[in-house]
Amino acid sequence: MTQAATTDTRTTTAKLTLPTLTTMVVGSMVGAGVFSLPRRFAQETGVAGALIAWAVAGTGMLMLAFVFQTLAVRRPDLDAGVYAYAKAGFGEYLGFFSAFGYWASACVGNVTYWVLIMSTIGTIAPSLGEGDTVLAVVLSSAGLWLFFLLISRGVKEAAAINRIVTVAKVVPILVFVVLALFYLKPHVFAENFAGADYAGSLFQQVKGTMLATVFVFLGVEGASVYSRHAQRREDVGRATVLGFLSVFAVFASVTIVSYGLMPMGEIAELRQPSMAGVLEHAVGTWGKVFVSVGLIVSVLGAYLAWTLMAAEVLFVAAKDDDMPRFLKKSTAADVPVPALVMTTLLSQVVLVVTYFSDDAFNFALDLTSSLTLIPFLLAAGFAVRIALAETQSGRGELAVAVLATVYTAFLIYAAGLKYLLVSLIIYAPATFLFVKARREQGRSLFSAREVVILAVSIAGAVIGIVALTLGWISL
């Protein structure tokens, strides 16, 4: 995932200003996924398809950014962003699913960090492979629990870490783009324009890149997650839009300039982080080392930040009585350790699963994106309901909300049945947490509508398990 860079806002009484919130959003989106873009795009599409894909993704994600901006202003009473919007718009059970799905996506996204780190080190330690060997899983697991111990002690320095990490991520990316433009070969770029034979039709090329674009844009909602800490409520929406616009051009540039350095078939065969391999081809070994060092520094810091954000989602949901009570417990250092334990455990499980996948990094990337689609769809749908219900909402707000909803629905289609089923395998068992929370409150477990949602989620999970068992789908 791209995953987030943020501050441990619960450890300070200071309110977050617009520059701080914007930095959080930028840090959230500029993550590990950017370093992997050249190979992922080259596996799916040529230059023409990439340009269309970025146009679609950029427009769609901008609509989502506008949705979060509108919701922050229209419903200032709602905190914790994506999860709170789903709950207010579609009831507690779907709100619970939104909170769980968003949290789970952060946990799975964290796995991509460790896969990339091990793949990067694997260039000098072949036993680590591309982050998918037994040794890589063992070392990554050790890293998971070392970070758990660090965070459980309290991380009051997260704001300073955030600034360092953001610089460590942005500088190598900008240097890469500038050097790639300098070394760009027009004839190679032209040969890659239509795409290789293996890429399929133009529509298939665009469709195949959609989950990758979602992954790198994850974090666009980062400011809304901490909306309760904003100095001014309207700054949440402004930071979301400013942050998105700040990084969109960078993301597209990394992909497009790569097509001017190497044939797309060769880019598609590079190991991750593929940005390092592309730059090595252009300038030599030092380019690969430069990008690799920047990646490791940024990924470790981003892992810390996203783990904090994931724990915050469970913590806030528990305080709102949508998760079991044990998840709202915190230490004297104001660290929600039970939520942190669950976050680390799910990352551990997914890390083990990646060992059995055909492509560890792409599997974790696509699953991360898929898990966020339901929370995003519910938030966009809530914006549509508000635009229809409030007389002061103009046609522009309704159009933006509808476009964001259509775009998110298209992403679910683009993800395909495989990742929808795998997502439901993760979603369905989470209902045990919902049941536990209801019982703690002495409430009836499900309404008639919630029973229908439960049945659909369980049916999808069962079909997914059967499909995996019989080999109809593979990880």
SSE topology sketch:
Elements: H1 18-29, H2 32-35, H3 37-44, H4 47-74, H5 82-90, H6 92-121, H7 134-152, H8 158-183, H9 186-191, H10 202-217, H11 222-225, H12 233-258, H13 264-267, H14 274-283, H15 285-319, H16 337-354, H17 360-389, H18 395-427, H19 431-440, H20 448-470
Helix pairs in contact: 1-8, 1-12, 3-10, 4-10, 4-12, 4-17, 4-18, 5-6, 5-17, 6-7, 6-15, 6-16, 6-17, 7-16, 8-12, 8-14, 8-15, 10-17, 14-15, 15-16, 17-18, 18-20
Q: How helix-rich are the residues, as a percent range? A: over 70%
Please tell me the overall pLDDT: 81
Question: Could you say which structural class the secondary elements and strand pairing correspond to?
Answer: mainly alpha
What is the string of helix and strand elements?
HHHHHHHHHHHHHHHHHHHH
- Kindly report how far apart the N and C termini lie: 18 Å
Sheet with most strands: none
User: Which descriptor suits the 3D outline?
Assistant: globular
Strand content: under 5%
Which key phrases capture this entry?
0% strand, globular, disordered N terminus
Task: Walk me through the structure.
This protein has 475 residues and is mainly alpha-helical. It has helices spanning 18-29, 32-35, 37-44, 47-74, 82-90, 92-121, 134-152, 158-183, 186-191, 202-217, 222-225, 233-258, 264-267, 274-283, 285-319, 337-354, 360-389, 395-427, 431-440, 448-470. The chain is globular.
Summarize the structure.
The protein has 475 residues and is mostly helical.
